[in-house]
Amino acid sequence: MSTKLEKVDAVVIGVGWTGGILAKELTQAGLKVVGLERGRYRQTDPDFQPPHIHDELRYHVRYDLMQNLSRETLSFRNHQEQTALPYRVLGSFLPGEGLGGAGVHWNGVCWRFLPYDFEIRSQTLARYGERKIPDDMSLQDWGLTYDELEPYFDQFEYTCGISGQAGNLQGETVAEGNPFEGPRQRPYPTPPLTPSYANLRFRQATASLGYHPFMQPAANLSEVYTNPDGITQGACVYCGYCQRFGCESYAKPSALTTVLPVAMASGLFDLRTHCNVIRINVNSSGNKAVSVTYIDAQGQECTQAADIICLNSYVLNNCKLMLVSGIGKPYQPASGTGVVGKNYCYQASTGATVYFEDEIFNTFMGAGALGVSLDDFNGDNFDHSNLDFIHGGNIANYSTGAGPVRSRPVPPNTPKWGSAWKQNLAHYYNRSWSFSTQGSVMPYRSNYLDLDPTYKDVYGLPLLRMTFDWGPNELAMTEFMAQILEGIAKELGADKYSISKLTKHYSIVPYQSTHNTGGTIMGADPNSSVVNPFLQSWDVDNLFIVGAGNFPHNSGYNPTGTVGALAYRAADAIVNNYLAQPGPLY
Amino acid sequence: MKERAEKTSPSLSRRRFLQVASALGLAHLLTGSEQAQNTPNLPQNPQFKAPGQTRHLPRVQAAYTFFTLPEARFVEAAVSRLIPADDLGPGALETGVAYFIDQQLQGKFGLAATWYMQGPWQQGTPEQGYQHPFNPQELYRLCIPAIDMHAEESKGQVFADLSVSAQDDLLAALEGEKLEISPLPQFFLSTFWQILYDNTMQGFFADPVYGGNDQKAGWRLVGFPGVAAAYRGVMEAYYGRPYQVEPVSLADLQAGAALADESGHAIHRDLATGEILSVHPESFKHEH
Ligand SMILES: Cc1cc2nc3c(=O)[nH]c(=O)nc-3n(C[C@H](O)[C@H](O)[C@H](O)COP(=O)(O)OP(=O)(O)OC[C@H]3O[C@@H](n4cnc5c(N)ncnc54)[C@H](O)[C@@H]3O)c2cc1C
What we know:
The complex is a heterodimer of chains A (586) and B (288). In chain A, 22% of the residues lie in helices and 20% in strands. With 586 residues, chain A is an alpha+beta fold. Chain B folds into two domains: 14-31 and 64-219, no CATH class; 225-288, no CATH class. The chains are: A alpha+beta (586), B mainly alpha (288). The site of flavin-adenine dinucleotide has 41 residues of chain A, from helix 1, strand 2, strand 11, helix 9 and helix 12.
């Protein structure tokens, strides 16, 4: 028996970064909004306060803030011929759970994707011709341009207070910034962070190689900032407990410290935590969503009716909830038809670690996004005519904070234990640091998401099944990048260095990044995408699906800046177009 | 020690209770006026509020509560080879790492409380990761007697009683997947090695509150300050120079044995002189 709950204007499924944005924008437009979040209620004070938040074991190693896989996970295989098996222990990516979602424990590197990304197929064809895109690469334009999205990038950045240095102000190149970025209407809201010593060394070396390094945009605020909603945020103290931790200083913008306080103060936001959505219900003709079914904190099934439904439960569950609710045509890899689950992509990284005999770096100090980056080898910023791949990746040195539970660098060929290891660790722990490529991933017909035939979650629903492996583009691109990284290591004058390359097959075991993308992709054509450029379902026009699941491919950047912009654009479309005239917006 | 005067006021704690209860869907248990106050309301501005002091934290009397005696002997011997005591200082044995592992196994890690542990079970590819029905407790319980049996049958003594060089050889064989203990499939031993290795490192470097890293020896070895200070302004002052301080633990701060600034960040002391290092709490002032 499902308890039927009185209809509200809108339901937001998942109250993380994007759910928070939708909740704020819709309540500000006067809508009564119910927010359903599967995890627990939490806030900066007292939940993320020192000293207990500075606990590497609890937060970094035992994943205190992440998804509890005993309740729900996904299954994984590299190829269709394999049997997918459950992701039993967290590793490669760490989905969030609880109010604020993964935004609570992100690093805060906050990018705008390149203009090239949004028109990747047309621009690649125009510059290099048909032959550059292999048949099995389902490369698509996004259905909107960078210029159309620019105001929403701006809105997300000013809501957060992002710290950074503009490189392209209304078409004018600005010194010290990223010359490859798309034009921005105004500077970043706050100045860049203060570089670490490693950042300085990296900046100097890459500049002398002729590259264009800059302080990367950070959602770890360089100074106290009050945003357009009147919300004041703190300044980062460089404590070095950032990625995988909550921020005690209100200095790492998340939904908890930006949009949710506004939604909650509106009096129109009814937040329900410990409520796990299991289904979106549609009408008999299948063109309108009527309600959402969830299991509440007391284990009771409830059905909440609403006029508008926003799906914000992160890439993986957005796709799963579409599939279990039977909305949209599931993707069929054999024929390449269908759309839900299509173009699952990820991030292909290569890294370098450098060791110095005589230099000290205090690598335990830092901030999640404190780093120097360069985009010389990202997107189509360099000529690919004679290369056997497209796109590329950002290259960066981060000083995120390297506590010894998470980071114990020793030079290559050092034993892993015993006295020799101990000696090397004592010497190099503070004389070593890393930099890496955040490589793009192109979509392939054989990489996709669907439902697992065998394994179930705690609610009896099938697990999402991921079929994914590196394609030829990733292998060739990261090989190229490894050479660039090696050149930088040499220029740095490192006494020793090691380069880690992509393994032949993608493995779900080691942590790589929580930058899963695709599955509910956007586009201008309902035959090849799940949502239109306003993130509105092509099939069910009162359903909006928001997250990096909308990306038709993944760029060489962290996703959230672009996710935030897309969320704001969707909210704008709902408030300013859909409410007046409910129906397809595109 | 600077007094942190601010206490959680009754109205704040009431609000927190109402927020949590209502978020848990228990709003119907609250009275009408409580329900009126129960809309979760996140603070609109940073309110830096030092936590009130706790009153009593006991000195824990350590004892192995999961390991049997032979298991404890094995683990003590193994961790003391992985991180040996030497000229650089104490090793894993002396700093309580075996006890740390015992306590981790006794809790949610040992029981794989947050792992997906439903069948059907099937060994996958290495890329598919952990696929055993055994939680860490069961792996330790199974693999330790297997290795002891192997040592006894091949060398005449259980692992703990072997010479250190024989222990090292055996651990190297375990690490290199060269140890064959019929009828145990190799993946049990390789998984056990990985967990034993990780647990040893965690115990040696995690906060001492978990039972290892006694006297913060792991932190002292590498020069890690433990619970962070606010390094704003400090980071640049130490470019290229070691920041060498007396490390601070969670217990130091909670029990008031180390200083904290008004936001609760540790105030570090210079390791050599014991002098208080200047910190830069100006980031917490919000007058605009
Ligand atoms: C360690 C780490 C570091 C990161 N660093 C960066 C970075 O530096 N830069 C960057 O751009 N990105 C980073 N990310 C990614 C970033 O956190 C995400 O892109 C962002 O949070 C996505 O927002 P979202 O709203 O899609 O999902 P989330 O913020 O995760 O919110 C989704 C919410 O939905 C809830 N939910 C899921 N399923 C259900 C259900 N069935 N019913 C109810 N609720 C449900 C979840 O509990 C969660 O709270 C990082 C992520 C991690 C884990």
